[in-house]
């Protein structure tokens, strides 16, 4: 159980990823870790934290660094590890969430990714632009009348889930329920996991599974032009089994919800914190692509992922044996001055090149990156065009706690139409 | 050391040197060719290192494998000369290669 004020000591340096101070501004803690040079041990998770850009990029892009420990641990060792992390006795979570494309490597990962990657490539995603624009226009119509909004709840949270739902083939009216399930499953990934969250995550996975079973039966009876219908065809052709199909649908729906909501919120907050950058974008809307790229770098919404080494290796000048677990802190790497210059801590909507690691790297590079960017492009372009001004109604918006996510809980704004 | 030339969408050319086995993508990234984004770092997973091989070279390159071909078909503005530069590895046979850069990757 997490205590009220949990602390984790990293080689003598206070590192408190569950503290309010860290939630509000993790970057001083990240800088302190980066300045130590070599990876630092994080006892709560039994892993080495990696924070320098070159080290994080090197591990993320290295095929000998894997997500699943099955390459070097026995079934019994994996079960013991799950028990130690309180991941055990969760039959549906184990079947559909703990197993996924994201947590597979090699042949299994490549086979599953091959079934879905076309749908998320630039040309396919570009076809969704009109659909996203009309969806956002309708939402913004309602919000302009309202005047005062919570940007996170009223706009950010309404878009990505509906769009990914439409790509997959989920009816609009079911999207709010899918968001609740997704959040309840994802919350359990953070470091402050407890038995209550565990029960909630298992219940959400079970309900999610039953929902998808029903939807799949409907598509089998009446195929549609959507991803779930194409995945059913792939299953019939023997490319993946039913558990893999369910797991892949859950992964796509969950990945398509939270992180884009978070970076929409933190991106809007950045534009409001740095009004000169908002003005620059208003004067030159062609900067929207570099703006979005910078939002992902500046406040990476999923700042923490892990890898296991399958061979002896050297990271940051230090030798590590096979089977070492590394925690990759993308949020720290993306502020590394050696990669982004002395202004790595500045929000610059024209930054180019901007080869950040917010989408990870290597074989697990974020499948939905083009869809997330298109959602953001449509939202920010529409708001800037239709609003004369956007102002922040609170001094210091509160950010979500924890190491695994980064984004404001709410962002209260006043909108003035153009 | 081999030579590889990058020609941008405005016709500006830059000749760079490459080591044996080095990918055309990594030559571009190491030398500030910003049109090659290469966001996944060379795993054929993002489609942001797209280039067009000069027509004098198309016949001389090894054909793309299935994963590269699948990605090429889903890029913005692909042509028969489209390749992912992360999958083009420099060898003596490719010394002097010329590739053209798209104006935007997506």
From TrEMBL, chain A:
Coiled coil: none annotated. Keywords: Heme, Iron, Metal-binding, Monooxygenase, Oxidoreductase. Gene3D superfamilies: Cytochrome P450. Its cofactor is heme. Belongs to the cytochrome P450 family. This is Cytochrome P450. It comes from Aminobacter carboxidus.
From TrEMBL, chain B:
Residues 2-105 form the 2Fe-2S ferredoxin-type domain. Keywords: 2Fe-2S, Iron, Iron-sulfur, Metal-binding. Its cofactor is [2Fe-2S] cluster. Gene3D superfamilies: 3.10.20.30. The keyword Iron applies. The keyword Iron-sulfur applies. It comes from the Bacteria. InterPro entries: 2Fe-2S_ferredoxin-like_sf, 2Fe-2S_ferredoxin-type, Adrenodoxin-like, Beta-grasp_dom_sf. Belongs to the adrenodoxin/putidaredoxin family. This is 2Fe-2S iron-sulfur cluster binding domain-containing protein. It comes from Aminobacter carboxidus.
């Amino acid at each position: 159980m997490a205590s009220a004020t949990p602390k984790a000591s990293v080689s003598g340096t206070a590192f408190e990823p569950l503290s309010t101070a860290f939630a509000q501004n993790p970057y001083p803690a990240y800088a302190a870790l980066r300045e130590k040079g070599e990876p630092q041990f994080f006892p709560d998770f039994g892993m080495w934290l990696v924070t320098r850009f070159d080290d994080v990029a090197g591990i993320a892009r290295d095929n000998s660094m894997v997500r699943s420990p099955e390459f070097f641990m026995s079934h019994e060792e994996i079960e013991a590890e799950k028990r130690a992390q309180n991941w055990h006795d969760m039959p549906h979570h184990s079947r559909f969430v703990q197993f996924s494309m994201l947590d597979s490597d090699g042949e299994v990962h490549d086979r599953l990714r091959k079934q879905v990657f076309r749908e998320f490539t630039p040309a396919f995603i570009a076809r969704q632009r009109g659909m996203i624009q009309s969806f956002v226009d309708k939402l913004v119509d309602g919000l302009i009348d309202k005047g005062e909004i919570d940007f996170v709840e009223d706009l950010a949270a309404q878009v990505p889930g509906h769009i990914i739902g439409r790509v997959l083939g989920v009816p609009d009216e079911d999207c709010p329920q899918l968001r609740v399930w997704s959040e309840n499953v994802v919350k359990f990934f953070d470091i402050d996991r407890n038995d209550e969250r565990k029960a909630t995550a298992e219940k959400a996975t079970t309900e999610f599974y039953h929902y998808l079973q029903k939807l799949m039966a409907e598509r089998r009876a009446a195929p549609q032009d959507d991803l779930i219908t194409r995945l059913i065809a792939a299953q019939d052709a023997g490319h993946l089994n039913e558990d893999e199909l369910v797991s892949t649908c859950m992964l796509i729906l969950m990945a398509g919800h939270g992180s884009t909501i978070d970076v929409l919120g933190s991106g809007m907050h950045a534009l409001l914190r740095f009004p000169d950058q908002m003005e620059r974008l208003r004067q030159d809307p062609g900067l929207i692509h570099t703006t979005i790229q910078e939002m992902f770098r500046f406040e990476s919404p999923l700042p923490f992922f892990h890898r296991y080494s399958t061979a002896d290796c050297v990271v940051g000048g230090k030798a590590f044996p096979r089977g070492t677990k590394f925690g990759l802190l993308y949020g720290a790497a993306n502020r590394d001055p050696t990669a982004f210059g002395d202004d790595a801590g500045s929000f610059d909507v024209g930054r180019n090149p901007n080869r950040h690691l917010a989408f990870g790297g290597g074989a697990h590079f974020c499948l939905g990156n083009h869809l997330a960017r298109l959602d953001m492009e449509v939202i920010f372009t529409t708001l800037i065009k239709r609003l004369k001004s956007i102002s922040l109604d609170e001094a210091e918006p509160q950010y979500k706690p924890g190491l695994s996510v980064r984004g404001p809980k709410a962002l209260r704004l006043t909108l003035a139409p153009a | 050391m081999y030579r590889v030339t990058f020609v941008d969408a405005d016709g500006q050319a830059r000749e760079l040197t490459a080591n044996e086995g080095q990918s055309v993508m990594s030559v571009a990234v190491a030398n500030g060719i910003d049109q090659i984004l290469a966001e996944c770092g060379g795993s054929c997973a993002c489609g942001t290192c797209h280039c067009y091989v000069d027509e004098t070279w198309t016949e001389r390159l090894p054909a793309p494998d299935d994963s590269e071909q699948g990605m090429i078909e889903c890029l913005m503005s692909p042509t028969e000369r489209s390749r992912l530069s992360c999958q083009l590895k420099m060898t003596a046979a490719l010394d002097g290669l010329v590739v053209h850069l798209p104006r935007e990757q997506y």
